[in-house]
Amino acid sequence: MQGVVTDGLNRTQDSQLQNITQAIAEKIGTQKFKIWFESSTSFSLSEGYLKIGVPNTFIANWIENRFSKELKQAVEEVTGSKTKIIFNIDPQLVERRKAVGSALDGSIESEQKEKFSCQANIKGTARPGTGKTLSRKPELTLETFVTGPSNELAYSAARSIVSENKVSFNPLFIHGGYGVGKTHLLQGICNAVRKTCPGTNWLYLSAEDFVNQFVLALKTKKLEAFRSRMRQTDLLAIDDIHFLAGKLSTQEEFLHTFNSIDLAGKKVVLASDAHPKMIGQLSEKLVNRFISGMVVKIESPDFQTRCEICRRFALQRKTYVPDSVIKYIAEQLRSNVRELHGAMLKVIAYSALASRKVNLHMVMEILTEHISRTDPIVHISDIESAVAAFFGINIAELHSPKKDRTISLARHFSMYLARKHTNMSSPEIGRCMGNKNHATVLLACRKVEDQIKRNAELHWQCAVGNKISKARTILAKLENSIAG
Question: In order of start, what are the domains of the chain with their CATH numbers?
Answer without folding.
Answer: 3-100 (3.30.300.180), 130-298 (3.40.50.300), 303-374 (1.10.8.60), 380-483 (1.10.1750.10)
